[in-house]
Structure formats: C-alpha cells, structure tokens
Amino acid sequence: MRRVYLDNNATTCLDEEVLDSMMPFLRQSYGNPSSLHRLGDEAAAAMRSSREAVARTLNCYPSELVFTSSGTESDNMAITGGALAAGGRRRLITSAVEHSAVLDTCHHLAAEGFELTVLPVDEGGSLDPADLEREISDDVLLVTVMAANNVIGTLQPLRELAAIAAEHGALFHTDAVQGYGRMPLDVRDLGIDMLSLSAHKLHGPKGAGALYVKEGSPVRPLMHGGGQEGGLRPATENVPGIVGLGKAAALAVENMDARNRHTARLRDRLLDGLLEIDGAHLNGHRSPRLANNAHLRFDGVGGTDLVLRLSDEGVLASTASACSASSPSPSHVLSAIGLDWGQAESSLRLGLSHHTSDEDVDHALEAITRTVTSMRDAKRFNPPSA
Ligand SMILES: Cc1ncc(COP(=O)(O)O)c(C=O)c1O
Fold first, then answer.
1. CA distance 136 to 145
2. Annotated catalytic residue: which of 13, 60, 106, 323?
3. Is residue 8 scored above 70 in pLDDT?
4. Model pTM?
5. Angle in degrees, CA 42, 45, 46, rounded to 5
6. Atom of ligand 1 nearest to the CA of 321
7. What pLDDT, on the 0 to 100 scale, is given for residue 321?
8. pLDDT tens digits for 203-260?
9. Buried-most residue among 21, 110, 145, 246 (CB within 10 A)?
10. DSSP 3-state assignment of 126?
11. Torsion sign, CA atoms 235, 73, 67, 15
C-alpha cells in the first residue's frame, strides 16, 4: 500500500545527507568533546562547525547558542531560567495558543508565585500586539510568544511583539520549533532575546535542540554539573545529534524558499480539494500561515476515528498536536480560536514536507474524501430493529 506521510508538524524523516553527516560521530569519532586527545578534538571541532552553521541561520554569534536535548528543554530553560534570573520582576506574559512546553512551564511558575497573563488570539489564531501593549508593565520579566503555531500554522507578529517587550525592559522569547527553517528568523533584525528550536522538525535527528540567548540576557541554568555549554547546560554533549542539527539547519535555511514554494503549492491543492467536501472548513487563517500546514474540520466526523481510518488507507495524519493526541479533551489551540468541543473534535491536521509529491496529494485527497463520506453514510444508516 502507498504510504503518504502528512504528519510533518509532529516530526519529520531524517534526511539522507543529515544521516551521512552524523555517521562518523556514531562510529569512529566517538570522543568526548571535553577530552584533550585527538578524538576529543574531532568531536569539539564538529560541534564548533555545527554551532557556526546554526548561528549563520539566525544571524547571531556562535557563543549565543546553547545546545539542548529538545525544543521542550529550550523552552523550559528560556522561561524558568529567565524567571530565576529576573530579580524583582515577577510577571510573565504568553499567549493562549502556545505549545504545552511553554504553557505548562508558565503555569508551573505561576504556582510558584509568579504572576501570569495569557493573551487571547482571534479566530485565526493571531495575537494582536495592541493586547500586549495594554497588558504589559515594567514588572514583566518575560514575554513568550511562538513564531508559528504547531496545530493551525498561524505566524505571529514577532517584530511588533518584541519591540513592545523591549520598551518595557522585558525579555522576549519565541518558541520557533515549528517556524525555524520554514520562515526567515533573523534574531537581530526581529529584536528577539531568546529563541527555541528543535532538529526533528526540520529533517534532523530527535533529541537535539538549541536555545539562542542574546549576549548579556539574564538566564540561570536549570541543571548543575560539568560546566558544558557555558555552564547553562551541563552534560556530555550529544555530538552526533548536534552535528545532525547543524546539517539539517543549514539545508533547511538554504532551501527554504524552494521548499516553501513546493509545500505551499501542494498544501493549497490539498486544501482546495478538501474544502469541496460538504461541511468542510479551514481552521486558522489562510495567511499568514506555515507553508506546510493545513488544518480542517469536517462536520459530523470524529477526528480521531478519521485519523485511525486514514492510517489504514496509508495516509498518516493527526488531529491536533502529537502531544495532545492521547488526551480526551479538545486541543487548547482549537478552543482558543473559538471552536466548540464538537468542532474541535472533528478536526484533521495535515503537515507536508519537501518529500511530499503530487501523487501523494492525489492519494490523500481520494482517501480523505472517500473516508469522510463513508463515515457520514455509516452514521446515517440505522439498522431496522428486530
Ligand atoms: C511549537 C512547539 N514547541 C515545542 C515543541 C517541543 O519540541 P520537542 O519535541 O523537540 O521537545 C513542539 C513539538 O511538537 C512544538 O511544535
């Protein structure tokens, strides 16, 4: 059976070139980068190149990057590490559509005595900078708003939000786990103080991420130990993962325009075809939106059931985010854009990549249309009572 992978907002396949770049560090160059001998030097040199490669993509200094295990760890380090270093400031501001790595960290800090403000979004998932302007005050330590949403792909006005945070002396952090490699992110130009990213969303390995921390930004380490990563993230480094991250980042940014043109064209074909189904609706704005994301709902069709049936047809998709897939409650993102329980529960997320082809879209269109129709027909069929 043909397999069509449309869950690229959950994770992506490891690209061949990225795997090739990692292999020497899984096999012969297995040294600890802190060791003084030749194997240690090889590992340290590879980490240096990777740090420089990621720094080029963000327009920052290599010394401003901390390698971590994941986007989740980067978010925790930025928010909790920022809060621990904040001195007298006790307020945090975030948005209602953040990933749980951000929202749960903020709520945890609120339980520890920090004050938390969660800004609303409009029906497409966009934040209005005027809402931040109204809520912010000089006791805010950190504003954290994502670059691109992981469920409905909405892009946020980072430049405007960062400027408002700066006016009030607050740090501005962005969770760019979905946006990095899929949209231009020049941290100097945008005025960003901290930015989280994760390799597995851009055809790199799982278990490798990074946090950009602008020089001089106050952040305390969450772990204590050997002093690696400037003391912010002590642990023996995941050298193959870091090498893979550097390669995947360079490829993603170098090929961003071509990849975005490709995925946007196929995404629009998919979206336009699916919106022809009776009772199909787009969730989120059509623009500004990640080029690779489509999110729809089909009246009267259970999203979880649809995802499971599509899996049997070889079409691999999801309802909302991978982390919320096993939760019985609807995605907080879909609630935040005003969908009721039934609407949120009838949703389908489709995430494309540069590997997606026109034939994949043809197969998905046919399978989704047929499955939605047969699920509705089965509901209408009432067996005669005996
Ligand atoms: C927006 C966003 N933030 C954070 C994360 C967590 O990243 P990781 O899986 O690397 O921990 C994800 C992953 O789904 C995400 O989409």
1. 14
2. 323
3. yes
4. 0.96
5. 85
6. 14
7. 64
8. 999 999 999 999 999 999 999 999 999 999 999 999 999 999 999 999 999 999 999 9
9. 246
10. coil
11. positive
Ligand 1, atom 8, lies closest to the CA of: 71
CATH number for the region 16-254 comes to 3.40.640.10
DSSP string, 277-337: STTEEE-S-SSSB-TTEEEEEETT--HHHHHHHHHHTTEE-BSS-TTTTT-SSPPHHHHHT
Given a contact cutoff of 8 angstroms between Cβ atoms, the answer to whether 233 and 223 are in contact is: yes
- Catalytic annotation on 13? no
CB distance 71 to ligand 1 below 6 Å: yes
pLDDT tens readout for residues 162-207? 999 999 999 999 999 999 999 999 999 999 999 999 999 999 999 9
Residue count of the chain: 386
- Ligand 1 contact via 182 beta carbon (within 6 Å): no
Higher-pLDDT residue of 79 and 322 is: 79
Q: Is 7 in the pocket of ligand 1 (CB under 6 A)?
A: no
pLDDT level of residue 318 (50, 70, 90 thresholds): very high
Pocket test for ligand 1, best of 201, 202, 295, 324 (most atoms within 8 A of CB): 201
- Ligand 1 centroid to Cα of residue 103, in Å, is 12
Query: Could you tell me how far CA 252 lies from the centroid of its own chain?
Result: 14
| pLDDT, position 386 | 43
The residues facing 95 across adjacent strands are 119
Confidence of residue 5 (pLDDT cuts 50, 70, 90): very high
Structure token pair of residue 181? 């490699």
* Kind plus residue range of the DSSP H or E element containing 115: strand 115-119
Nearest CA to ligand 1 atom 7: 71
Check if 4-12+256-380 and 16-254 are the same fold.
no
- Domains of the chain, by residue range, sit at 4-12+256-380, 16-254
Q: Give the CATH architecture of domain 4-12+256-380.
A: Alpha-Beta Complex (3.90)
Q: Tell me, in angstroms, the distance from the centre of ligand 1 to residue 100's CA.
A: 8
pLDDT range class, residue 298, cuts 50, 70, 90: very high
